[in-house]
Design a protein that fits this description.
The chain folds into two domains: about 1-95 and about 290-305, 3-Layer(aba) Sandwich (Rossmann fold); about 100-280, Rossmann fold (3-Layer(aba) Sandwich). It contains twelve helices and twelve strands. It has helices at about 20, 40, 55-60, 80-85, 100-115, 115-125, 130, 155-170, 190-195, 215-220, 240-250, 290-305; strands at about 1-5, 25-30, 45-50, 70, 90, 150-155, 170-175, 185-190, 200-205, 230, 255, 275-280. It has a seven-stranded parallel β-sheet with strand order 8-7-6-9-10-11-12, sandwiched between helices. Helix 8 (about 155-170) links the parallel strand 6 (about 150-155) and strand 7 (about 170-175). Helix 5 (about 100-115) packs across helix 8 (about 155-170). It is globular and about 70 Å long.
Length: about 325
């Protein structure tokens, strides 16, 4: 069986092993694949493993040998699942592999906004403390999380973990979910109540027609001017321009973002220059432990397919 990995660098920049797949077939790994290289590299593949490569009807129609599409990610909006289904090609994804890492990163962003470790570390290394007349100084207001309200948009595995951590910080957790009827931590609320009462909004929803640009000027106008926004989910859930305007006008106090609506972003994305906006390059999932879990689950998904079983099939 010919197994082709089209964009393997992000998952495995040479610190993991492809051995699990090599035991299942002939493996060909490409770190990155440009649009004009996709068909040539995939034409003999029975199995394609992809992360962010787009596989829609025009591409799938040109791959007659293709029997299986394995997403090395949780999201699957980059594949035409319905057309693949009609062609008898299962599409699998990797659920819940990065729960701990993504939740941890959400709080890393939040703590940078509240405790400003980065700018204080920089000032010390620039000898500002050496020159100080006082034993202690601060470069920006610091914020205590205890008794603050953590608003959680989306209550999948990561949202649940964030709610649990928030409560450990002494925060009250409010949750808005399209699907959850009961929750283990916090209280379920309507979207308007979430926006109005939240001190920290942490986004963990999937991207769909309802959530696309959900956090726009109207939603932001309902929030406290002291509120902070954290997004480790999908960038397009937030309207970049509306959030940048709210930050620059002091309508929202700060944002910590691991995702943007377009990745890599355009140089003119207004969030790159917005006030009090911390941005990391979509790294909440990339701890080695998280990527190893992803690799292991991807191998098990393919093993199940080869044994005539279905595991994590999304079409």
């Amino acid at each position: 069986m010919k197994i082709v990995v089209l964009d393997g660098h992000t998952l495995n920049p040479d610190d993991l092993s492809w051995q699990g797949f090599e035991e299942l077939g002939e493996v060909e790994v490409y770190p990155r694949t440009a649009v004009d290289q996709l068909i040539e590299r995939s034409k003999d593949a029975e199995v394609l493993l992809i992360n962010k490569i787009k596989l829609f009807q025009p591409e799938i129609e040109q791959l007659p040998k293709l029997k299986y599409i394995g997403l090395c990610a949780t999201g699957y909006d980059n594949v035409d699942r319905e057309f693949a289904r009609k062609k008898g090609i299962p599409v699998t994804n990797i659920p819940a592999y990065g729960t701990a890492s993504v939740a941890q990163h959400a709080f890393a962003l939040l703590l940078e906004l509240t405790n400003r470790v980065g700018i204080h570390n920089k000032s010390v290394h620039e000898l500002e403390w050496v020159r100080s007349e006082d034993f202690s100084y601060f470069k920006a207001p610091l914020i205590e999380l205890q008794n603050k309200v953590m608003g959680i948009l989306g209550y999948g595995a990561i949202g649940k973990e964030v709610a649990k951590i928030a409560e450990a910080f002494g925060m009250e957790a409010l949750v808005h979910s399209q699907h959850a009827k009961t929750i283990g931590h916090g209280r379920l609320v309507a979207l308007d109540e979430l926006m109005e009462k939240t001190d920290v909004l942490s986004i963990h929803a999937s991207l769909n027609e309802r959530t696309n640009s959900l956090i726009d000027k109207g939603a932001l106008s309902k929030m406290k001017s002291s509120a902070l926004i954290i997004n480790t989910s999908r960038g397009a859930i937030i309207n970049d321009y509306d959030l940048a305007e709210a930050l620059n006008n002091g309508r929202i106090a700060g944002a910590g973002l691991d995702v943007l609506s377009k990745e890599p972003p355009s140089a003119d994305n207004p969030l790159l220059t917005a006030k009090n906006c911390i941005i990391t390059p979509h790294i909440s999932w990339v701890s080695r432990e998280s990527r190893q879990r992803l690799m292991d689950i991807a191998v098990e998904n393919l093993k199940a397919f080869l044994q005539g079983e279905q595991k994590n099939v999304v079409n």
